Amino acid sequence: MADALVIKNLNKRFGGLHAVQDVNFRVRENETLGLIGPNGAGKTTAFNLIMGFYRPDTGSVSAFGQEIVGLRPHQVCTLGLARTFQVAKPFGGMTVLANVMTGAFLRDRRPEAAREKAREAIDFVGLSARESAAARDLTTIDQRRLEMARALATQPRLLLLDEVMAGLNPAEIDQAVALVGKLSNRGLTIVIVEHLMRAIMAVAKHIVVLDHGQKIAEGSPKDVVENPEVIRAYLGSGYVHAPAGGPS
Amino acid sequence: MLNIFGWRSAVLGGLIAVMLVLPLVIKSSFALEILIRVLLFSFIGSAWNLMGGYAKQLSLGHAAFFGLGAYTSTLLQIDFGISPWIGMIAGGLVAMLASLPIGWLCFRLRGPYFTIATIATAQVLMLIFLKFRDFAWGAEGTTIPNLGHAPLMMQFETKAPYYYIVLGLLAMALLITAWIERSRIGYYCVAIGEDEDAAEAIGVDAPSVKRKIFMVSAFLTALAGTFYTQYIYFIDPQTAFNFNVSIEAALVSIVGGVGTLWGPVIGTVLLETTSALLQSWLGNSIGGVQLTVYALILMAVILWRPTGIMGYLAEVYARRRIKSLSLPAKA
Amino acid sequence: MLEILAQAVINGLLIGGIYALVSIGVTLIFGVVKIVNFAQGEFVMIGMYISFFLATQFGVDPVVSLVVSMPVLFVIGVLIQHYLIRRVLGLNDLPQIFLTFALSLLIVNLALMLLTANYRTVHTWYSDKVFHVGGLYIPVAKLIAFVLAMILSGLLWTFLHTTDLGKAMRAASQNRDVAQLVGINPNRVFAVALGIALALAGAAGSLLMPFYPAYPLVGQVFVLMAFVAVVLGTLGNVIGALVASLLMGVAESLGIQFIGADSGLIVVFALLLFTLAVRPSGLAGGRRR
């Protein structure tokens, strides 16, 4: 299978902070990649770099065979990449439908067609009942659904999900995991940032671990969980010799 | 459902009929003057609203385009004898073109600094026209030769024709706004106004959209400049690039309701009525009264009803609808 | 020739000190409260009228009247923060921009109504005195204004960097959420920021009286200078505002000397547009993205 996303030697500094250091990884088409790491590891920065909100200092990002460094975010989106934001950014004054239509307009400028496509996306995430609600009146979880619907309305081939499951209860997590699975079944390539181990393990067979801006591990969920570097990064060196499954 | 549509169309139809018939019924020149003023500032406010209300690009420098329109048509008229009808369009085009470099410069700043940059732009234009007498009469300005009744040169001896012209301009602005509201660029404008980064992430080319809406806004504002010059038969830099034009353009939209179709109209009616009342009570002797009252109204709106009159009405209507449909207000 | 140049530079620096007081206030408010105070010039105007009143009614020297104008404006600042600004914090740009804009409009026009548009001046015993140094003329009134402006700026800098409240303000300026987490009360910090900024504006007004007329619109000129200096010096950066103000004073003065008497504004605008075009984040700011 071809590569959907190739990240090579990605570097970004903010003043004295080396937020992303020589990061390399690739995502195959239709793969779901889990991007994990402690807070401040550089995951969201990586997303911002991929989408074009920041320009990397050095390195290359290519999506579906095309170099996208230097492109503006809307151009990256037109090529087929979409993202959700860690803290949802709905268009508060617009209705749910209008929010998602704005995304749908990327592929079809006719309002009626956009409305139809928007409704499909809204239905997919389960927000149909709230179609006419003002986005600012939604609960946090519904706002996340809205983010996803809006991103889906742009008909992406690669979806970047930034902590969509934070703060959900177990039932909601299962729903979210099922949703991600459905997206993958439709052929989407997904890069998902999550803190919840069981959620990541359920959706991703390929994991990349970042810490302090550097990639410290990559592999299957099992490999990653047992990797001493990963354990050290999350829990501290005291836990490195603990048997897999948790400290005794 | 059909009932509601019927009701709305009836009101609108009635309003249009009334507006068309008004000058035939009202003979007072003074009353017509007020109406013309209301229509003119509704028009200017609607033009501003496209940029400032929908896309939330809060310009306080629209006088720049007002003045460019005014000077373009006047120069063409006095130097080349070209009809102001053509000059009006030419002025609009000049303003559109000017909005490109002005936008390029000002859009580099966000928020209040964008606003300051727009103020500076209008001021710079005023300074330029004040200083350079060679191409545009300098600080003294010029009067437009009175040709009596000359419809082809946009001059009339009664107020009624002016009324119809500005009514036509307002209707055009409202139609354009209504069309934009329902189209892709309208959604993109509102999205940019709400959250430009989020909009970019879903494929909105924000700089391009801002440029386009700025051009439309500038074009329309320039038309107003031409009209006003023809109406008062006079132009000078202080009048053409007057900061008060920029202020009122923004003010009527904010008070009436930014980002709504009828907001600027309602805002103008309120503010101009207040102004007319003040004038009749206090006369013109005490400087600063009108703007003091405007400032107080603006502060009141911002502190208590930032969505303006239309916004308030929309909320009331939405709450009523939710009650009548027995939907929970929030999940 | 060199003398003319030096004289123009001196003139520019002296008035630049006043610009600095105004622009430091603007940048302080922007840095801490994240709001642009469109009405800053009007508080300079109020300071001027206070000094005018004290001078004509009680014979108080305008510079001395600093001790009245500054506290009065400090209190006004705290009140404005409490009753007005606090209500638009956390809202988006429109209310924030137009609130202070409306305030500016209100104060100017109230002044027009109540005080009339007449120019008011105060003539002190040193208003016309000039120091002769080398071949240069240094007006005493302007020198006093400059020195006091620098002293006040220095006091502010010390306050920001040595006192707890000052550090709290800098913290809130850099990261409001974290500042709250460590127990800094944002409203208190904002109130002090407003108070200080307005006090500085009032000081500028008092210092201006010996050599500048007071009239309702006088603030508009200074606030324009202030805004350009703030952008040039990087938003929120106090030292940047100070340096940029001095630079602008010099630029304006050179423009008046070498281009023409009314070219001051054009030079200022040219500077602004140039900054916007080339380096919108100001002299100390980083690059966007």
Task: Write a short abstract of this structure.
The complex is a heterotrimer of chains A (248), B (331) and C (289). With 248 residues, chain A is α/β, with parallel strands linked by helices.
Secondary-structure class of chain A: alpha/beta
CATH topology of the largest domain in chain A: Rossmann fold
Let me know the largest β-sheet of chain A.
6 strands, mixed
Topology order of chain B in helix (H) and strand (E) letters? HHHHHHEHHHHEHHHHH
Class derived from helix and strand content of chain B: mainly alpha
Rg measurement of chain B, Å: 20 Å
Distance between the termini of chain B: 26 Å
Number of strands of chain A: 10
Largest interface: B-C, 37 and 42 residues
Spell out the CATH superfamily of the largest domain in chain A: P-loop containing nucleotide triphosphate hydrolases
Describe this structure in words.
The complex is a heterotrimer of chains A (248), B (331) and C (289). Chain A folds into 2 domains: 1-80 and 159-248, P-loop containing nucleotide triphosphate hydrolases (Rossmann fold, 3-Layer(aba) Sandwich), CATH 3.40.50; 90-155. In chain A, 36% of the residues lie in helices and 25% in strands. Chain A is built from 9 helices and 10 strands. Chain A has helices at 43-51, 73-79, 96-104, 111-125, 140-152, 170-185, 197-203, 221-226, 228-235, and strands spanning 3-14, 17-28, 32-36, 58-63, 66-67, 81-83, 158-162, 189-193, 206-211, 214-219. Helix content of chain B is 77%, strand content 1%. Chain B has helices spanning 2-25, 29-54, 63-80, 84-106, 112-131, 133-136, 160-182, 184-194, 196-201, 206-232, 237-240, 243-256, 263-282, 289-304, 308-325; strands spanning 142-143, 234-235. In chain B, strands 1-2 form a two-stranded antiparallel sheet. In chain B, helix 1 runs antiparallel to helix 7, helix 2 packs across helix 13 (263-282) and helix 13 runs antiparallel to helix 14 (289-304). Chain C has 11 helices and 2 strands. Helices cover 73% and strands 3% of the residues of chain C. The longest helix of chain C is centred in the first third of the chain and has 32 residues, at 2-33.
